[in-house]
Specification:
single chain, alpha/beta, FAD/NAD(P)-binding domain, oxidoreductase, about 425 residues, about 25% strand, D-amino-acid dehydrogenase
């Protein structure tokens, strides 16, 4: 009897989500082709902060943000910027964002984020150890520092994390100095998140996983996918010049996912939070990611030096990067470091488009009305963190097996 033909799966989008999905699906016995016209991990998966931020279980839509918004928006180099030419287009997203601030919804979304994050590192351990790549995760925890926040407010933040089961420790200035001697003396307290990890090279991290995908027989096709159609049980996808077929399709195209699913009749309020980084040639003695609660940015030591990352900018996917947004990170980094020698001169600057939804939850699951069409996008600031667990969930769905997490909170039908 002839061997049964493997089912063909097309994964659209070769960021960390798409790469992890492609690798796990290939491991599961499918014949997988990964599509991306820009190459492997050329977007946010290349330029992110390298922080596997499992402690970030709280949605961004919180009522306390409302009183901070005016100060953020009127500071041209502050942590949030809306390009006024993009404002009308962004208003529906912000309206839904404010609706998600309601206490009951906020608590529900927190539980959904927590469900993904508490399995995130375990999922990566399972995936990386399969290929003897465990060394790619650096497990030294991370710090959230405070300079002027009163201790009673810090205790509230600390207890909120404890209430969610996050492994966290409140450190004094002296304890911070022991862990990271080159941090500023102005830091009064810090929270040490003990179970998080980081990557010293997020791009190389992705490329290593993609190499395993190829070694298992997976195929990467550097083609732009502009349309996906379903005729009977077969999908046709491609562009004006070339078409491909597949038995199943996974849409993991990040901020560019929306145009691919609209023709199927699905509505999703997906927008992009443009994030920036500066790369410095030295890591300035830091050994773990260090974030600032008041300055809203993060510094991560990497093999190439220190990556300073952060800021949120709403300006769509097409406008050129605003170099000032990247360079505005430098004064914050200088203030956070005790010894900024050599002087903080960026070796490179970068901008990437985070795919964000108003409730801070991704879309993960099978399309409600189109069998064998799967969604894995919208992971906002947590794409790197949730890559492996998302791939486990998508693989279970493709194998028609129960998922380890209830996927109802992430279903596209919530919109």
């Amino acid at each position: 009897m002839a061997a049964q033909k493997k089912q063909q799966i097309a994964v659209v989008g070769a960021g960390i989500i798409g790469i992890c999905c492609a690798l796990n699906l290939q491991r599961a016995g499918f014949a997988v082709t990964l599509y991306d016209d820009k190459g492997l991990a050329q977007g946010c998966s290349k330029g992110n902060a390298g922080h596997f931020a499992t402690e970030q279980v709280f949605p961004l839509a919180h009522s306390s943000l409302l009183k901070k918004l005016p100060g953020m928006l009127f500071n041209p180099l502050g942590p949030l910027r809306i390009d006024w030419r993009y404002l009308i287009q962004a208003l529906p997203w912000f309206w839904l964002f404010t609706k998600n601030m309601r206490n009951k919804i906020y608590k529900t979304n927190t539980l959904a984020l927590k469900a993904l994050n508490e399995s995130a590192i375990i999922a990566y351990d399972n995936l990386l150890n399969e290929f003897n790549l465990g060394h790619l995760l650096t497990k030294k925890g991370s710090l959230l520092t405070f300079e002027v926040t009163p201790l009673n407010q810090i205790n509230t933040i600390y207890n909120n994390f404890l209430d969610q089961g996050i492994a966290v420790e409140l450190l004094s200035a002296e304890e911070v100095k022991v862990l990271e001697p080159n941090l500023s003396e102005k830091i009064t307290y810090a929270l040490l998140f003990k179970d998080v990890a980081h990557s010293v090279d997020p791009h190389l991290f992705c490329l290593n996983l993609a190499a395993q995908f190829s070694a298992l027989g997976g195929n990467f096709c550097q083609q732009k996918i502009t349309s996906v159609k379903q005729t009977g049980k077969i999908f046709t996808l491609g562009n004006n010049e070339q078409t491909f077929t597949a038995d199943k399709v996974v849409i993991a195209a990040g901020a560019w996912s929306k145009p691919l699913i609209v023709p199927f009749g699905y509505k999703v309020p997906l927008d992009t939070e443009r994030g920036y980084h500066c790369m410095l040639a030295s890591n300035y003695g830091l050994t773990r990611p260090v974030a600032s609660a008041e300055r809203s940015f993060i510094m991560t030591p990497m093999s190439q030096g220190l990556r300073i990352a952060g800021t949120v900018e709403f300006a769509g996917t097409e406008r050129e990067m605003n170099n000032k947004r990247a360079l505005a990170l430098l004064p914050n980094a200088k203030a956070m470091l005790k010894n900024a020698a050599p002087p903080l001169q960026p070796s490179s600057i970068w901008m990437g488009c985070r795919p964000s939804l108003p409730d801070s939850l991704p879309v993960i699951g099978e399309a409600p009305y189109h069998p064998n069409l799967f969604f894995a996008f919208g992971h906002q600031h947590l794409g790197l963190t949730q890559g492996a667990i998302t791939s486990e969930l998508i693989t279970s769905l493709c194998l028609k097996r129960p998922t380890k997490i209830d996927l109802k909170p992430y279903c596209i039908s919530r919109f």
